[in-house]
Amino acid sequence: MKAIFSGGANEVGASCYLINLEGKNILLDCGIRMSSTKDNLPDFRLIQEHGGVDAIIVSHAHLDHTGALPIISRMYPQAKIYMTHATKDLTRVLLYDSLKIMERESEIPIYAENHVKDMLDRALCYTPGYTFTPFPDSQIKVTLYPAGHILGAASVYITSEEGSVFYSGDFSGFRQNTIEGAFIPKLRPDVAIFESTYGDKLHANRELEETRLIEKVSSIINEGGKVIIPAFALGRAQEIILILKKAINKGILKTKVYVDGMVREVCRVYKLNPNYLRQNLAKKIFKGNDIFFDDNVIAVEKPEMREEIIKESCVILSSSGMITGGPSQWYVEKLAQDEKNLIAITGYQDEESPGRRLLDIMEESPENRKIKIDDKEILIKCSIDKFGLSAHADMGEILALANSLYPKKIFLVHGDPEIINFLGKEVQKDLKSEVYIPSNGDIYEIDIKNPRKQIEKQPYPSMNQNCALTQENIKDLWQFIVEKIGVKQALSLEEIAQIWGKGVNTENLKELLNNTIYFEPDKKRMFLYHAVTEDELKNLQKDEVMELNQMLSLVDEYFGPESGLYKKGARFEEKIALLYFNFPDVAREKYSEKFKEFEEKTGWKIELNKNINISAINSILSKILPKEVLIKKVSYMNMEKKVIVKIEGKINDLDLVKDKFYSETGLTLLIANDKEGIQNEKKEIIMANSDFEDRMEQNKALKIIDEEFSKLPHKIYKKSIKTSSDGSKYIELSFISKVVGEKYTELIKKLSEKTGWPIGISDSCNQFEIINIVKNLFEEKGILLKKNPSIYMDNMIVKIITSSPIEKETLEEINEKLYYLTGFKVEML
Question: pLDDT digits over 53-100, tens only?
C-alpha cells in the first residue's frame, strides 16, 4: 500500500490524496485552494509520476474537495468517479458557478465547460451504506458512509487484500437543522485519514450559539440596524436560513431575510434531494412545501434589488462565506460604515481572507479597524461578532471516531499546521496507533503485515425478475423482503434493485419507494428503506389510495384540455387532489358526476381552486365576440362576478353573446363602447325620491357625508365624483368592502335626499387594511401568523397559517369581529 499527498496536507484546501492498493491508484478528492495568493491546484505532477489515476472517490461537494476534478478527469478520462447522488447535483452547481466567476473576472480558465460536462458524465452515484466494486479485476471494495457536514457528504471505506483504508472527509457527528450527523459503524481499518480543521478546539454548545445569534441579530434589528451574514453557499447558508426562519415563526425575530448569491441555487438542489435531509424537512418537500423561502425569507433575484434592500432594517445572508467574492463583498462595503450594523461571521476563515482580517481587528482601536476588499481599503465602524456554527468535527469528535475505529496508522490532514500538531499529540495520548502528520509532496510506503479481518456482508437473496418494478407488482417485492430478509433491515436503492432482479433504474425506484405504502424511509437515514410490517400495512390499507403519479396521470384522462384544467397538484399527507380550472364554479357543476367517479376510483378527495383564472377570460371573449369587434379593455369585478369589456364596434345579438359567456365562465358580461356606455347595465346608485335639480355644492355635500360617518364604526376611505353611463354625475363612497358599505343603505338614502346627490357604493376593497385588521385580531389573542394573510375576493375569504394550533372558540370569536369590521371571514390553511 502507498499513500501520496498531493494537496490538503498541513493546510485547508486542495484536498487530494492518492492511495495505491493492489496495483490500483485511487484518488480521494481533488480540490482547489481558496486563497488567491497561492497556487490553487494540487501537485498533479506527483500523481502523474506515480502512474496516474484509475478511480476517483469524492467525499463531498465543497470546492476544496472538488474544484480540480475537471482537470484530473480530463487527464485520466478512463477513471470513473464515485460519489453520492446529492454530491453530484451540488458539484454541478459549484463548478458551473466557478466557470462564470472565471469568465467574469477575465481569468485564464483552468478548465472549460465541456470538461465539467465530461467529468460529470463519468460520475457514478451510490447510496451511502452500499458496497460496490470499482474494478472488475480486483478484490477492492468501497463503501460510503454518511459524514454529516453538508448534504450528501460521505466518509470512504476501502477494503482490499493489502489492507483497509478509512478516509473521513469533512465530517460532523452532531445533528444539524438540515441533515443528520455522521453515521459510521464500528469498522476495522488498518489506515485512517482524518480531517483536523478544528482539531485543537471543543465547539460551543450549538443550541446556545444559535440562540446567541438570534439575540444579537434581534437587538441590531430593534435598533434599526442591518445585519450581513457572509455564509458558505453550500451548507452553512441553509442552516442559517432555518435558524432565522424558526425565530421569525416563533415571533422572536421580526425582520425580512434576504438571500443572495449562489445560496439560492444550492437551496434548489437541497429540495431536489429530500432523502438526504432530516425527516421533518423531507416530509415537507414530499407535501410540495418550500423549506427555505417564504414571505419573510426572500431570494434576491436581480442585482438591482440590492440598493433597495439596504435601505431598510433587515438581515442579508450572502455568499461568499470568507468575503473573498460574491455579493457579500458588496454588502460588507456598503454596511460597514454604520455603527448600528453587524457583520456576523459563522464559519471557517482562511488565513488571508477578508473574513479572517475582520476577526483579527475586532479588538483593535477604531482607526485601525480596516480591511481590504478588491484592493479597496474599508474602514469598519459596524459591530463584528463570531458565532460557532461549524459543520466540522471538533477535537472531541475526532478523538471519539479514532478511538472507535482504532486503526494501526493514522494520518492527520485538512488543518493548519499548529492545529494538526496539537491534535497529533492528543491522539497519541489516547491510542497506541502510529500517528503521521504528512506535508504536501510526502509519499508513504505502508506495509500491513496482518491486515485486519473484515466483516463480510452476505449478499441478499434475489427474486431474479426480468420485468420492470412498478406500483402494480411492488407488493410482490415487499412480500419477498418481509419473508426472506425482514422488516428491520435498512436497504439501499441498489440493494433493493438487486433483490428484485434486472433493469431497475435507481432514480425511478426512489420515486416509487417514496410514494408506496409498502416501504418507508429510515427515520435517520432517509436514503435507506424498510419494508413496513404487516400490521402497519393493514392500517395503511384501510385508507389505501392510488399512487400519487398514477393519480395525477388519471386526472389528464378524466379532464382534457376542453375542461379548462390548467394546473394540478396534491396534498400528499391528506390525500387531496388539487385541481385548478379556469372557471371553477362552472367545472363544479359540469363535472360533479365525474368528480365522484374519480374519487371512488382513486381514493383521493378532489379540491377545486376558488378563484378563476383571469387570463382565460380573454380567450373566451375572442372566441365568442364577432371578429369585427375590437376589444379595447377588459375589467374583472371579482366581488360582483362580472366582466366589463370596452369595445369598438357593435354587437347585434348581445343577449346571445352574454348567455354563451355565462355558460362557459359563470360570469356576467357587460359590454361598453365609447358612444353608448355599458349596454344593458347600469351602476347601482342609491337615490332619494327627488329629481336632483337642486343639488348641494359638491364640497359641502362631501363634508356632510363625512360628519355623518365620523360617528360610526365603519369609516369611508375615499369619496369620488363619478359619471354614470347616462352622463349624470354621482358621489361614489369607498368602504373597506362593498359588503360593509351596503350595511348603510338606509343612511346613504337619507344623505342622498339631504344633499340632492345620487350616491353609489364602490365595488373596490381595501385589501391592505383588511390584512392589517386580520393581523391585529390574531395578535390580540397572542397568536402569530406564519406568513401574510391571502385575500380571496371571489369568496370574501382571508386565508391564514398560524404558527401554533388555534382553539375553535377563539377562531369563531375572531371571525365574528372580522366579519363585522370587513365583511370577510378567515379560513385556516
Answer: 999 999 999 999 999 999 999 999 999 999 999 999 999 999 999 888
pLDDT at 680: 47
Residues contacting 79, CB < 8 A, separation 6+:
27, 52, 53, 54, 55, 56, 72, 73, 122
Q: Where is the domain boundary, 646, 664, 679?
A: 679
Pair 192, 284 in one domain = no
Which residues have C-beta within 8 Å of that of residue 449, sequence separation ≥ 6? none
- φ/ψ of 630, rounded to 5, equals -95, 125
Residue 281 class from Cβ within 10 Å (0-12 exposed, 13-18 middle, 19+ buried)?
Answer: buried
pTM: 0.68
Whether residue 557 sits in one domain with residue 526: no
**CB-based contact 525:128 (threshold 8 Å):** yes
For residue 690, how many other CB atoms are within 10 A of its CB? Answer: 14
Q: Do both 627 and 564 map to the same domain?
A: no
Residue 17 and residue 135 in one domain: yes
pLDDT surpassing 80 at residue 673:
no
Total domains present in the chain:
7
Domain shared by 756 and 771, yes or no: no
The CA-based diameter of the chain, rounded to the nearest angstrom, is 115
Q: What grid cell was written down for 697?
A: 355644492
Are residue 738 and residue 780 in the same domain, yes or no? no
Q: Say if 452 falls within a structural domain.
A: no
CATH number at residue 823: 3.30.300.20
The answer to whether the beta carbons of residues 603 and 546 sit under 8 Å apart is: yes
Residue 460 lies in a domain: no
- Return the closest-CA partner of residue 65 out of 184, 152, 162, 2: 152
- In the predicted model, what is the mean pLDDT of the chain? 90
pLDDT level of residue 301 (50, 70, 90 thresholds): confident
Instruction: Say yes or no to pLDDT of 150 above 50.
Output: yes
Could you tell me how many residues make up the chain?
829
Do 157 and 283 sit in the same domain of this protein? no
62 phi, psi to nearest 5 deg: -55, 145
The tens digit of pLDDT for each residue in 162-184 reads 999 999 999 999 999 999 999 99
Using the predicted structure, report yes or no on whether residue 681 has a pLDDT greater than 60. Answer: no
Does residue 351 form part of some domain? yes
pLDDT, tens digit, for every residue of 487-525?
999 999 999 999 999 878 888 899 899 888 899 999 999
Last residue of one domain, picked from the residues 585, 608, 631: 608
Q: Contact at 8 Å (CB) between 242 and 178? A: yes
Tell me which residue range forms the domain holding 822.
767-828
CATH number at residue 431: 3.60.15.10
Buried/exposed code over 37-70 (b: 16+ C-beta within 10 A; e: otherwise): eeebbbbbebbeeeebbbbbbbbbbbbbbbbbbb
Residue 456 lies in a domain: no
The CA distances from residue 797 to 379, 585, 611, 809, 829, in Å, are 52, 16, 11, 19, 12
Q: In angstroms, rounded to a whole number, what is the distance separating the alpha carbons of residues 177 and 174?
A: 10
Identify whether the C-beta of residue 45 lies closer than 8 Å to the C-beta of residue 450: no
pLDDT score of 429 more than 90: yes
* Number of neighbours of residue 597 by Cβ within 10 angstroms: 12
- Do 277 and 307 lie in a common domain? yes
pLDDT > 80? residue 670:
yes
